[in-house]
Amino acid sequence: MYKEKFTKIQLFGVSLSLIGVFTVITKGSLDVILNLSFNPGDLTMLLAMVVWSIYSIFVKQHNRKFPTYGALLVMIMFSFVFLIPMAAIEYTQLGSITWSPSVILGLFYLGIFPSVVALIAWNSAVNQIGPSQSSIFLNFIPVFTMIGAVLFLGESIKILQLIGAIMVISGIMITTSKRARLEQTKVKAS
User: Fold this and answer.
1) What angle (nearest 5°) sits at the alpha carbon of residue 166, between those of residues 51 and 147?
2) What would the 3-class secondary structure string for the chain be?
3) What's the whole-model pTM score?
4) Of the N and C termini of the chain, which has fewer Cβ atoms inside 10 Å?
5) Residue 2: pLDDT above 60?
6) How confident is the model at residue 80 (pLDDT cuts 50, 70, 90)?
């Protein structure tokens, strides 16, 4: 939409990072890719990524028109309008919640960090470096998920997943390197 052109270095970095993402997700197994099937949750996540991409483009275009925290407040209010009916439906199907300190802390964590702090940080990044440069950092999600699975769920990591994580990190570093940005500036100028 912005007619941004990636340089060859950036395309290499993005490609390397995406190959790393697939390696981490599939644990390096070709069988996972060959036997790939989608369930409703997978399709929901694909739709969410499309919506997130559109959101990121609009943030770049329109974020300067609104105060940062005012726009955030409006988004939170809209989310309440859409999520309260969903929560009510879920509550009727699942029954009551067993409240405990860990459940309450979990809710506070989800309400503060991924919902508010991360959104402010994302919007700031999109404003500063643009949606295409910001989006490469989304490739860290499978790497951090893998680390969380090891730390909190006791899962083990395969060597190919470590190689994939290194590919993700290397690809992001290449894509966002000073040299790549300088070449992109030259491409934009011509």
Assistant:
1) 70
2) CCCCCCCHHHHHHHHHHHHHHHHHHHCCCHHHHHCCCCCHHHHHHHHHHHHHHHHHHHHHHHHHHCCHHHHHHHHHHHHHHHHHHHHHHHHHHHCCCCCCHHHHHHHHHHHHHHHHHHHHHHHHHHHHHCHHHHHHHHHHHHHHHHHHHHHHHCCCCCHHHHHHHHHHHHHHHHHCCHHHHHHHHHHHHC
3) 0.70
4) C
5) no
6) confident
